[in-house]
Amino acid sequence: EAQLQLREVAGIPLQASTVDNWNQIQNFEAKPDDLLICTYPKSGTTWIQEIVDMIEHNGDVEKCQRAIIQHRHPFIEWARPPQPSARNAKDCMVSYYHFQRMNQMLPDPGTWEEYFETFISGKVGWGSWYDHVKGWWEIKDRYQILFLFYEDIKQDPKHEIQKVMQFMGKNLDETVLDKIVQETSFEKMKENPMVNRSTVPKSILDQSISPFMRKGTVGDWKNHFTVAQNERFNEIYRQKMEGSSIHFTEL
Ligand code: A3P
């Protein structure tokens, strides 16, 4: 139990394994053509990883099946520029709650009511959603950063995948793009053992509690938030995001 407690580094609660690798993380130096994916947890990390890998390999499914996604895109916080992807805070909170229920390496989230407070206080693994999203949004024009929204990819995957392709300096034809859209759909990825975490032991990720590929939708927060929670959330959101021009289609 104790080892599951998050430990703070520079004010950010982190999983123990991340803390153990802190030196490596701080000393990480990107090479000029590195592409870093900087998602807040549960914002579609796996999705964008698969999209990037598909683009990199010109839509070759077999090449993308060479290894599980965690090995094709090592996590900097665990192993060793940037493309943040943001998902609206409400759906993100719901997804994170179910993830903490099934992830045996993270603290038990408690009840939904308890988790709601934990999330808005920012005391969740890898820190506050508000700080992450606000921070990347603020600097996105100063560096070579492609800022994507989960909701946009969901609504028009082809258009967003095309943006990623251009950012990566690739030029794939229409049929390849269509294939990537198909192969990275939620339905396909849920069945794909190279991305759905089915190879991770149950002692780490217990998918009988909640599947890793859970719902993959926009607006599931409406099935979780009470009216009172929603009002409280909106008020705190306004305070925390004050001064930021970022706009989410789902809020
Ligand atoms: P839900 O829990 O709402 O279903 P991460 O990879 O950062 O941990 O994010 C996980 C979330 O992204 C989960 O959300 C998961 O279902 C969703 N997701 C993964 N692949 C997806 C896809 N191809 N399309 C839509 N959502 C996807």
Summary keywords:
45% helix, mainly alpha, 251 residues, 6 strands, binds adenosine-3'-5'-diphosphate, 13 helices
Provide the succession of SSEs. EEHHEHHHEEHHHEHHHHH
Calculate Rg over CA atoms.
Answer: 18 Å
Uncertain stretches of 5 or more adjacent residues: none
Proportion of helical residues: 40-55%
Oligomeric state of the chains?
Answer: single chain
User: What is the molecular shape?
Assistant: globular
- Count the DSSP helices: 13
Structural class: mainly alpha
Q: Give the amount of beta strand, in percent.
A: 5-15%
Using DSSP, what is the number of strands? 6
Bound molecules: adenosine-3'-5'-diphosphate
> What profile does the largest beta sheet have?
2 strands, antiparallel
Give average pLDDT, whole number.
Answer: 93
State the strand order across the main sheet.
1-2
Cα end-to-end separation: 35 Å
EC number: 2.8.2.-
Protein name: Sulfotransferase
Keywords: Cytoplasm, Transferase
GO biological process, one term: sulfation
